Automatic annotation (TrEMBL), chain A:
Domain of life: Bacteria
Compartment(s): Cell membrane; Membrane
Chief place of localization: membrane
Family: Belongs to the ABC-3 integral membrane protein family.
Organism: Solibacillus merdavium
Keyword terms: Membrane, Transmembrane, Transmembrane helix, Transport
TM helices/strands, residue ranges: 14-34, 64-86, 98-121, 141-159, 180-197, 228-249, 255-275
Annotated membrane topology: Multi-pass membrane protein
Designated name of the protein: Metal ABC transporter permease
InterPro entries in UniProt: ABC_BtuC-like (IPR037294), ABC_TroCD (IPR001626)
Pfam families, sorted: ABC-3
From TrEMBL, chain B:
Annotated organism of origin: Solibacillus merdavium
Domain ABC transporter span(s) in chain numbering: 6-241
SUPFAM superfamilies listed in its UniProt record: P-loop containing nucleoside triphosphate hydrolases (SSF52540)
Family label: Belongs to the ABC transporter superfamily.
Protein name, entry field: Metal ABC transporter ATP-binding protein
Matches recorded under InterPro entries: AAA+_ATPase, ABC_transporter-like_ATP-bd, ABC_transporter-like_CS, Metal_Ion_Import_ABC, P-loop_NTPase
Length: 288, 248
């Protein structure tokens, strides 16, 4: 594999993008999960699909746009979707989750229209749905890197505010934090990460890379920083194992990465159960 | 003249269907220890939320530390323990240390990291509430009373000038309630920390507070605790619309 990476540019693109996404997706995922926004990531990824499908249609119909990288319209769609979700959430204060099906069905609906306009699925679209090892371009890699810089900057600047906001929103507001703005920025950054991740894991599976490693980390972590570190470790493991097996078995990396994440999650749950049992047993014996 | 920290002029507030507060005027001076009392649904929590800026008044005026509430910038001067502070998501992966430290968020300010001495402040605040041993424990795995103490520590850690507590002793056992009120009295006397305390434990707090306010949509009494003691039970009952028992 290492030799192959050194030799083939497309593999470098896929591998380095994967490594970056393996960090930023679970990193933001921790905030998404603890704030119970997991489904929003799903809704946004479907909106991203609308942007991608639209872009593919445009480049098919207009010769001048033939070289347009779909990732850009994907980002535009995803970010607009995130702002729209926020609007809707505020409108339906007591039914915040209503924003999710509205945006999600909107995204799928628009995608369906563009896909049928472009007369059906082609291999390009398949690679956006389930990820691809071979389709990641150098340009895609640069976009992923730029998004990673934005994510890291955002978290460095707002880490403590995001923590307070996630843990106790009322307290955050009482402390005078600009909760609305930080939340909106957060959603935009989530949208960016979704757009960045879809090239590797695919639109349909993006949200799993943001939630599965976090689900595993939360079984083990006592603290927040601990949860973040573990989530990144699990995410990175899933991406590396998933990409390598996708390459050798010629499978869609989205599938292998998600299956690896699920195996990690199951292992964590299983091992924790055993450790807990053993420690309870040994304590019980001490008492006796 | 002592400084006026909180001033409400003719403040009214209405939820969608309920008038919660009517024409409230209230002044809290620096160094006051005010017990805010009233039956369930009388608007105590609503009043605190108005002061904290969580709700906006429909009419009237609120001033904090002499400034209009919506221009007030020093939220870190005000510590807050909410009524349902332990109703958080108990699966949240956070340690006691991380939660208490988050009480410094406004003091530290946007774009900055917690300073090195934050850890010392956190330990000090936890010691004040007798929870220093639980620094690295997961917050969700503590008992309700222990969680409540952690939230009190979070309010104390920034060393606020004004502490607002909405039934903070719910879930805390009786011995520790005494110790907790002693601590509040100490902070009030020796650190000049102004207190607003919503409570139903009239008998426990009565010899520690300096002022009492009785609320039922509007304020029926606000004055020195000694004057409150001279009011008859019948009088108080007439405000609440049912009988009460005063314990001295
Ligand atoms: N979020 C809300 N939406 C609508 N009405 C509310 C809301 N919160 C409180 N109310 C109503 O406003 C009134 C005052 O409520 P508030 O919570 O201020 O009372 P309280 O004095 O704190 O009561 P308790 O002793 O039970 O804590 C009540 O009639 C209540 O039904
Ligand atoms: Mg209340």
């Amino acid at each position: 594999m290492i030799e192959a990476i050194l030799n083939y540019e497309f593999l470098q693109n896929a591998f380095f993008s994967g490594l970056i996404i393996g960090v930023i997706a679970p990193l933001l995922g921790v905030f998404i999960v603890v704030r119970r926004l997991s489904l929003i990531a799903d809704a946004l990824s479907h909106v991203t699909l609308a942007g991608i499908a639209g872009s593919l249609y445009l480049s098919q119909s207009f010769a001048g746009l033939a070289l347009l990288n779909p990732i850009y319209l994907g980002i535009v769609a995803s970010v607009s979707g995130s702002i729209l979700i926020e609007r809707l959430r505020r409108l339906y204060k007591h039914y915040e989750e209503l924003a999710i099906p509205i945006i999600m069905s909107g995204g799928i609906g628009i995608s369906a229209i563009f896909i049928s306009l472009a007369s059906g699925f082609n291999t390009d679209l398949m690679s956006y749905l389930f990820g691809s090892v071979s389709a990641v371009s150098r340009q895609d890699l640069y976009v992923v890197m730029a998004i990673a810089v934005v994510v890291v900057l955002f978290l460095v600047l707002f880490f403590k505010e995001l923590f307070v906001l996630s843990f106790d929103e009322e307290y955050a507001k009482a402390s005078g934090l600009p909760a609305k703005w930080i939340h909106l920025l957060f959603m935009v950054v989530v949208a960016l990460v979704i757009a960045a991740s879809m090239r590797i894991v695919g639109i349909l599976l993006v949200s799993s890379l943001m939630t599965l490693p976090v689900a595993a980390a939360m079984r083990l972590a006592r603290g927040f920083k601990e949860a973040i570190i573990l989530a990144i470790v699990f995410g990175e493991l899933a991406v590396i194992i998933g990409l390598i097996s996708a390459f050798y078995l010629n499978l869609a990396p989205g599938g292998t990465i998600v299956v690896t994440s699920i195996i990690i999650l199951l292992l964590v749950i299983f091992i924790k159960k055993i450790v807990l049992k053993v420690s309870i047993k040994s304590k019980g014996e001490e008492v006796l | 003249m002592k400084k006026i920290l909180i001033e409400l002029k003719d403040v009214s507030f209405q939820y969608e269907y309920t008038q919660a507060l009517k024409n409230i005027s209230l002044r809290v001076h620096e160094g006051d220890f005010l017990a805010l009392m009233g039956q369930n649904g009388s608007g105590k929590s609503t009043l605190l939320k108005l002061i904290l800026g969580l709700l906006k008044p429909m009419s009237g005026e609120i001033k904090l530390f002499g400034e209009q509430a919506n221009h007030f910038k020093h939220r870190e001067w005000i510590g807050y323990v909410s009524q349902k502070s332990n109703a958080f998501n108990s699966g949240f992966p956070a340690t006691v240390e991380e939660v208490v430290k988050s009480g410094l968020v406004q003091k530290v300010g946007l774009f900055k990291r917690y300073p090195k001495d934050a850890d010392i402040l956190v330990k000090g605040a936890l010691k004040d509430v007798g929870m220093e041993k639980y620094l690295k424990r997961n917050i969700g795995q503590l008992s309700g009373g222990q969680q409540q103490r952690v939230f009190i520590a979070r309010a104390l850690v920034s060393d606020p000038k004004l502490l607002i507590l909405d039934e903070p002793t719910v879930g805390i056992d009786r011995e520790n309630v005494q110790a907790f009120y002693d601590m509040l009295a100490h902070l009030n006397k020796h650190h000049n920390m102004t207190m607003i305390l919503v409570t139903h434990d009239v008998d426990t707090v009565s010899d520690r507070v300096s002022h009492v306010a009785c609320l039922n949509q509007s304020i029926h009494f606000h004055g020195y605790k000694n004057d409150f003691d001279t009011i008859s039970e019948e009088q108080i009952a007439s405000w609440n619309g049912h009988s009460v028992r005063k314990i001295h």
